[in-house]
Amino acid sequence: MAKYYDVHPDNPQPRTIGQVANSIREGALVVYPTDSCFALGCRLGSRDGMERIRAIRHLDDRHHFTLVCRDFAQLGQFVYVDKDVFRAIKASTPGSYTFILPATREVPRKLLNPKKKTVGVRIPDHVVAQALLAELGEPLLSSTLLLPGEEEPMTQGWEIKERLDHVVDAVIDSGDCGTVPTTVIDFSGGVPEIVRRGAGDTSRFE
């Protein structure tokens, strides 16, 4: 059974956030809120967590996982960002964007796009997600919580707890989340390519 954590949306309880972070370090797969949708998250090096996300969402090997980072300094450890790209991404973070960029050696090979050697990264603009990332001290390996055959993600933590009780280890609920996933921008070719139009404004990349 998944543990259910009711977290204040503006002032997350440090003790609760600490408990969740400890469980992630020990290999837990959690559902947590972001500034776009609820997401599935586990520790970066957790092969078991990654496979469980694939199983829940029915994903194939080509799916781009996302490294959800606390800030730009952390993001820079895992992807290569040149000067022009830096300015564009810096102006858009934190926010509802996922950026696809060439990965550094810090990223496990299993997470990379097999042809391009890229990975998705994002910095969420969400108090609870930021508190969890700060406590964890490393990125979360994440994927939007969109179940197979469904057009929109679930928006309520209690519903997620009921539906996924036996396949995740914890659900963090800080209120309803949205149904629109992040906007995905691919910078791996040097110029922005809009892969998916979502919650983030695309005008600056067009």
TrEMBL record:
This is L-threonylcarbamoyladenylate synthase. It comes from Streptomyces caeni. Residues 14-200 form the YrdC-like domain. It holds the Pfam family Sua5_yciO_yrdC. Gene3D superfamilies: DHBP synthase (3.90.870.10). Keywords: Nucleotidyltransferase, Transferase. One of its GO terms (molecular function) is L-threonylcarbamoyladenylate synthase. Its EC number is 2.7.7.87.
